[in-house]
Automatic annotation (TrEMBL):
InterPro entries: HAD-like_hydrolase_sf, HAD-like_sf, HAD-SF_hydro_IA, HAD-SF_hydro_IIIA, HAD_2, HAD_sf, PGP-like_dom2
The keyword Hydrolase appears for this protein: yes
Signal peptide location: none
EC number: 3.1.3.18
Entry GO CC: cytosol
Organism for this UniProt entry: Pelosinus fermentans JBW45
Keyword Nucleotide-binding: no
Protein's name in the database: Hydrolase, HAD-superfamily, subfamily IIIA
C-alpha cells in the first residue's frame, strides 16, 4: 500500500500548459503602452506568483504603481478573452487523473492563479475528473509558498501532511511542500528546469506523468 494517500497538484505548468494564453494576454497589455513585449519562453520564469506579480515582472522596472494597477486591469480583461484559446492539459495528465480517481486517491489543486479562473479551467478541461478541493488565489488564504492552503486541503482530506504528496513545476511548489511538511514531486514538462527543482529539494523528479503513478503505487 502506498505511503501517499492524497495528492495536491499545482495548475499552471503542472496540469495545464497555459503559457501561450498568458503570454499573448500580457503582450497585448504591454503593446498598448508601447512597452517591449516578451517571448513565450521568457514568460516561463514570470508565471507562478499571481497576476499582479506577473504584470510587475513584465513591465519596465521604472513603471509607476498606478500604471501597474491599470495594466493589471487590462490584463484581466485580455486574459478573460484568451484563457481558453490554447490552454490544454499536458500529454498523459488526463489518464493519470482518471487512474488516481479510479484508485480512490483524493486529488486537489493549489494554485496562485485567481480562484475563478482556476475553477473554470478545471471544469472546462477536466469535466470527468473529481477534485476533492480546489484552491486558487482567494481572500483569506496566503499565496504559495505559504502552506496555508496546502494544510487546509490535507485537513479536508482527513490526512496527515506526511501522507500527502505535493506536485509542481517550480521552486514555489517545492518550498510550499517543505513548509507544509509534505514530500514533493518536481515535474520536468512545466515552466522551470530540473536544476531549480533539485536546488529546492524536490523529493522526486519525474519526466512524464506516468512517473507520478509509479511513485504513488
Amino acid at each position: 500500500m502506498s505511503r501517499y494517500k492524497g495528492i495536491i497538484f499545482d495548475l499552471d505548468g503542472t496540469l495545464l500548459d497555459t503559457l501561450s494564453d498568458i503570454a499573448n494576454s500580457v503582450n497585448e497589455v504591454l503593446a498598448s503602452y508601447g512597452y517591449p513585449t516578451h517571448t513565450k519562453e521568457e514568460y516561463r520564469t514570470k508565471i507562478g506568483k499571481g497576476f499582479r506579480n506577473l504584470i510587475e515582472q513584465s513591465m519596465p522596472e521604472d513603471t509607476e504603481p498606478v500604471i501597474i494597477e491599470e495594466g493589471l486591469g487590462k490584463f484581466i480583461k485580455a486574459y478573460h478573452e484568451n484563457y481558453k484559446k490554447e490552454t490544454k492539459p499536458y500529454g498523459g495528465i488526463v489518464s493519470l487523473l482518471k487512474a488516481l480517481n479510479n484508485k480512490g486517491i483524493p486529488i486537489a489543486v493549489n494554485s496562485n492563479k485567481r480562484n475563478d479562473y482556476t475553477n473554470n479551467l478545471l471544469r472546462y478541461l477536466f469535466p470527468d475528473i473529481v477534485f476533492s478541493a480546489i484552491y486558487g488565489e482567494r481572500s483569506g488564504f496566503a499565496k504559495k509558498p505559504d502552506p496555508q492552503a496546502a494544510l487546509e486541503i490535507a485537513k479536508q482530506m482527513q490526512l496527515d501532511p506526511k501522507e500527502v504528496l505535493y506536485i509542481g513545476d517550480s521552486k514555489t511548489d517545492m518550498i510550499t511542500a517543505q513548509n507544509a511538511g509534505m514530500d514533493s514531486i518536481g515535474v520536468l514538462w512545466g515552466f522551470r528546469d530540473e536544476a531549480e527543482l533539485r536546488h529546492h529539494n524536490a523529493t522526486y523528479i519525474v519526466k512524464q506523468p506516468q512517473g507520478i503513478y509509479n511513485i504513488v503505487f
